[in-house]
Amino acid sequence: MSSYPLEHFVSDLEFVLTAAGSEDDVLMAVAPLAQKFAAEMTRPAAADFAWNEKYGMGDLELYQAPDDGLLIVLGAWQPGHGVPPHDHGTWSVVVGIAGNEHNSLWRRLDDGSRPGYAEIDKVETKLVSPGEALTLTTEDIHSVDNSGEEISYTLHVYGQSLETSGRRQYDPEAKSVQMVAYDLA
Questions:
Q1: CA pair distance 10, 75, nearest whole angstrom
Q2: Claim: this prediction has a pTM higher than 0.70
């Protein structure tokens, strides 16, 4: 039996969301809670995930607030797969459970005034390994890949449902940006 079950984790997150002032405060408070929750997780079975074969990613929803707020998901990446640069349209915390997930962080160079146009530049790559946390603000852009030889598993906590957050996907070669749905089909 877990000493930090999902319902306690959700309750702690809801308290943080009512008490924290800024997005940075939220991220600083959520990261250690997510690490605590992830530390007790075991490697899930790959068969439990809904898989997107194009990107080699799977997810398993653990919790979605009824108001489309807080979302908690287990994510998985098959070896040799990943997703292009994107933002979430909300803050997020990613914590490694098993394997390694490489997150490339990007910065936007243009001012966002031209619809469909975006210039982005890769800034750095961070490794999310078991127990490690990566925090992303609403504006942060990242891409993900699993260059390892095993499926990587991560815990993802989002401030809002990805179906309603207004996420965007970027193409650095075409210098474009477009709204994307969170869809594993």
A1: 18
A2: yes
Give the Cα separation of 159 and 139 in Å (integer): 13
Give residue-wise pLDDT tens across range 18-74.
Answer: 998 899 999 999 999 999 999 998 777 777 888 888 888 898 999 999 998 999 999
Give CA torsion, residues 75, 80, 85, 86, to 10 deg: -20
- CATH number for 6-179 (one of 1.10.1040.10, 3.10.290.10, 2.60.120.10, 3.20.20.70): it is 2.60.120.10
CA distance 18 to 12: 10
The alpha-helical segments, DSSP class H, found in the chain are: 6-19, 23-39
Cβ contacts of residue 11 below 8 Å, gap of 6+? none
119-124, long-range: CB < 8 A, 24+ apart: 119/172, 119/175, 120/85, 120/170, 120/172, 121/172, 122/172
Residue with tokens 């957050």: 165
Q: Is 55 helix (H, G, I), strand (E, B) or coil?
A: coil
Contact criterion met (CB below 8 Å) for 50 and 58: yes
